[in-house]
Each structure stands twice: as structure tokens, then as C-alpha cells.
Design goal:
Blueprint: H1 2-8, H2 22-33, H3 39-48, H4 59-66, H5 74-86, H6 91-98, H7 105-115, H8 122-134
Helix pairs in contact: 2-3, 3-4, 5-7, 5-8, 7-8
Length: about 140
């Protein structure tokens, strides 16, 4: 998978540079699995492993410096969802969702992402939205 990232990014020349450590790769995979990073963020962090200034930093430090860690704190996400649901601009979408129009959930998740500055885990945000809209 990671070699394809290099090829897709036309950074094959990076294959001549020192490779990331096993720990960096393992940590990156764990962070992706745990929802701490989006797929786009995984690629960003992976490519930074080849940056001479970041090559020896641990994965979480690189992700923090790139400001790409996703918000998974349920309390923080619930507060953002509550703010989105309280916004009059989302009332129509909420009514449509309750009437069975599933696709508007994407709009509401987008509003959560906007308020969180892209930090919310979209899957978790969607779960919270669905739970709150069923009540």
C-alpha cells in the first residue's frame, strides 16, 4: 500500500531515501485503524517520513505537527453536533432526514466537519447525528 502512495504521488525517487522505521509504519497503521487519521492524512504522514527534518520523529508527533489528528473525543464531537443541530440553517436537512431522506446526512456531517475544521472523525460524527436525530 505505501509503495503505491509513493508511485501515485510521483515520489518514486523517495525510494532511494532512508526508509521509515518499522515502528513508524506500525504506529501509522494503528492510528489509521483507530480512526485517528483519515486516509488522506495517512498519506501525508507517510510522505513526511521521508522528509529529512521529520524522518526521525515518531508518527504521532508528525501527525500533530501536520495538524491532521482526527477528533474522536465523544464529548467534544457531541458538542459540535449539538451546535450543528441548533443552527437554523440545518433545520430543513434535519426534517428531510427524519422524513427518510438518508442522503442529507452527508450535508450534516459536512457541517460538523466544517465546525471542527476537518478534525472530526466523520464516521463517529455520523453515528452521533443519527442517534440524536432519532430522538
Amino acid at each position: 500500500m505505501f509503495a503505491s502512495v509513493l508511485l501515485a504521488e510521483e515520489n518514486i525517487s523517495l525510494l532511494n531515501d532512508p526508509m521509515p522505521s518499522k515502528q513508524q509504519i506500525s504506529d501509522l497503521a494503528a492510528m489509521a485503524e483507530n480512526g485517528e487519521l483519515s486516509s488522506t492524512s495517512v498519506k501525508e504522514v507517510f510522505l513526511k517520513f521521508f522528509d529529512p527534518e521529520m524522518h526521525f520523529k515518531d508518527t504521532k508527533t508528525i501527525a500533530k505537527e501536520l495538524n491532521v489528528l482526527q477528533e474522536n473525543d465523544l464529548g467534544a464531537l457531541e458538542a459540535i453536533v449539538d451546535e450543528v443541530l441548533a443552527n437554523p440553517a440545518t433545520q430543513k436537512a434535519q426534517e428531510e432526514f427524519k422524513a427518510g431522506q438518508e442522503k442529507v446526512i452527508g450535508f450534516l456531517v459536512g457541517q460538523v466537519m466544517k465546525l471542527s475544521q476537518g478534525k472530526a472523525n466523520p464516521a463517529t460524527a455520523q453515528q452521533i447525528l443519527r442517534a440524536k436525530l432519532k430522538n
